[in-house]
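dumping this here before i forget
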Amino acid sequence: MISTTITTLNLLLEESARSFGNRPAVGFAFQPPTRHGEFHQKALEVAALLRERGIRKGDRVAILADNSPQWGMAYFGIVRLGAIGVPILPDFPEADVKHILDETGAKILFTTQRQLEKLYELPGNRLKTVITLDDAADQNNLVATLPFSQFLAAGDLPEKKKTLAADLADPDDIASIIYTSGTSGHAKAVMLSHKNFISNVRATLSIFPDEPVQGWTFLSILPMSHAYEFTISFLASLATGSRIVYAGKTPTPTVLERICRQEQPTIMCMVPMVMEKIYKKKVLPVISANVLMRAAMKLPLVRRKILQKIGRKLRIFFGGRLKLLAIGGAALNIEVERFLAEAGFPYLVGYGLTEASPLVSAGPYGDPGIALGSAGKPVQDVEVRISKPTPETGLGEILVRGPNVMQGYRGNPEATEEVLDPDGWLATGDLGFLDPQGNLVIKGRSKSVIVLSHGENIYPETIEEKINAFQHVVESLVREGNNRLEALIYLDYELIDAETRGKDQARQLDHIAEILAEIKRQVNQQLPQYAQLAQVSEHREPFTKTATHKIKRYLYTSSPLT
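structure:
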């Protein structure tokens, strides 16, 4: 637990350097790490040099880059001055990047070579300086860049850092403006304060296994520009003297296994899609290997032994030292969670949103009252209640209150008033209920609910969960068209190619049609009459998704059903 005297991110970093200065802090997989003390010093250097370039308290400085130690140094250099960091998701398109830079009035941008093309059409001279964290120059000579190493080599840094001794930020000052990549298509600028983040770090540490986390290794595979990875991996790691290892881009299961074998992570944050892919590629083939195995899985005691053996092998896949896999950002398929629970695998499912810095509920780890299919219990200092619950089910909109709740949407008081009431309750837009043990159960987005002519509410996420349990399915989306339901399914074409190797194209297409027909038949058997799928269609490419791999539904709402 971090000290109650730590009220800002700057004080958190100071304490990290003071208590864990010689411990490994940040680095890429397979490379030597930077230590906590050195990381702190580099952040101070960045702050001093930003001030030389005119950055003052309240100014906005943007970061558009993949994860790296330099990303964190840049961020802490920004907030050291009481300035505001504007993390931009690396996968945001050019139009969104331009909009964010324009709306925030960012004076300086930290970026990398991969992102430079997005800056080519920026009107006027909006950015004073573009600093490349990977020391890259623009190969097309359209953007003037300053390499990060050259930026730091400005000389006389000890003298410049002397006046940075005092904390220039207050707990209620804005630390980050994070633009959501929402499923509704309207990104909002979420203002999160130092207090918001610090409170959520404390809440995060309260759900971890009850033992010292100092010296643990966090493996980072999600973007730091998203609040989920930023708070739960990056800040929590710094607060506990742990080491964070960056995997680079989201790795395939094969690459992830190689990284884990070398780095032996203790903690990982993961979105459900990655875990579901590992389950389908590494676990399901073992379970369905032959008739004898499938028969054995029907015997409870034998099933338990088989799954626990697979669970031990899965721990080895993750390096053998994993203490907690934190899964969040979207709903985890219940079949996958049931396997993890029966296999004795160390995992937690949580729920959060950017506007809550982000963690709302999870675990705590080891609590026997956590229900399968739930997002655990509200975390420390966070209140959850259900607005206007239906008498039969207790279902309603999830409301959240606590020190982690945002300050509002920048430049959008109307949108802020829509979701934040005078008593501090945040309307999440998500539907759910609290079970008798206090677990929060999420049913879906209120805007996603489908109401056909019969008047019954249909939650597409519930149907998609049933579809996604099939081994041939990568992801799916259920939508309405002409008062009927259609499921769009993106299939595992690697598996299908293996099953139809040597067959002509016509037979391959027949095989796909048979798979879709069987999915429709089996799923409809599990659904009430009013929620039956009228059509199941193949979607030939992955769906466009947010940073946490939630499908952007608004892009697929127009249905061709006839």
